[in-house]
Backbone:
């Protein structure tokens, strides 16, 4: 019986394999299940970052194009004014 799954080999350092195996045993049941979950989470995170950056560019174009350095400077200045970082 054919499936849509594809098998591939991947190499990890021994210490990482031990961590993977421990976490798989604790939460997932198998290395494959853990690796699938990890890759899916990574891909979801990447998609969310891409959407956030796309939204940021839209907002940036609406308020006037500014450089990343300008945005960082504004954030730094606001933090210093609010001193939220010092709490």
Residues:
């Amino acid at each position: 019986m054919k499936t849509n799954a594809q098998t591939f080999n991947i190499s990890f350092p021994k210490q990482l394999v031990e961590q993977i195996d421990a976490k798989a045993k604790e939460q997932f049941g198998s290395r494959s299940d853990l690796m699938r979950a990890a890759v899916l989470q990574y891909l979801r995170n990447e998609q969310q970052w891409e959407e956030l950056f796309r939204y940021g560019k839209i907002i940036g174009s609406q308020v006037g194009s500014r450089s990343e350095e300008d945005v960082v400077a504004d954030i730094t200045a606001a933090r210093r004014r609010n001193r939220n970082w010092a709490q």
In short: The radius of gyration is 21 Å.
